[in-house]
Amino acid sequence: MERIVEIIREKGASTALIIGFFVFWELFCLMGNISDILLPRPTQIIAALIKFWPAIWPHTYQTLYTTLVGFSIGVAIGLALGVLIGSSKLAYDTAYPLLVGFSSIPKVAVVPIFVLWYGAGTVPAILTAMIICIFPIVVNVATGIATVEPELEDVMKTLKASKLDILWNVSLPRSMPYFFAALKVAITLAFVGSVVAETVASNRGIGNMMMIASSSFNVPLVFAGLFVLAGLGVALYVLFSLIEYRVTGWAHRKTDLAAS
Amino acid sequence: MSAQGREMRAGTAVSPGATFIEFENASITYGRGARAVQALAPTSLRIAEGDFVALVGPSGCGKSTILKMVGELLKPSTGHVFVSGREIGAKPIRIGMAYQNPTLLPWLNIRDNVMLPLKIVPPFRQEFRSKRKGEFRDRVDAMLTQVGLAGFGEKYPFQLSGGMMQRANLCRALIHEPDLLLLDEPFGALDQFTREELWAIMQDLWLSKKLTVLLVTHDLREAAYLANRICVMSSRPGRILDDQIVELSRPRNIDMTFQPDFVALNQRLRALIVGARGGTGIVNHAPGTA
Question: Which listed residue, A138, B75, B91, B179, has the most CB atoms within 10 A of its CB?
Answer without folding.
Answer: A138
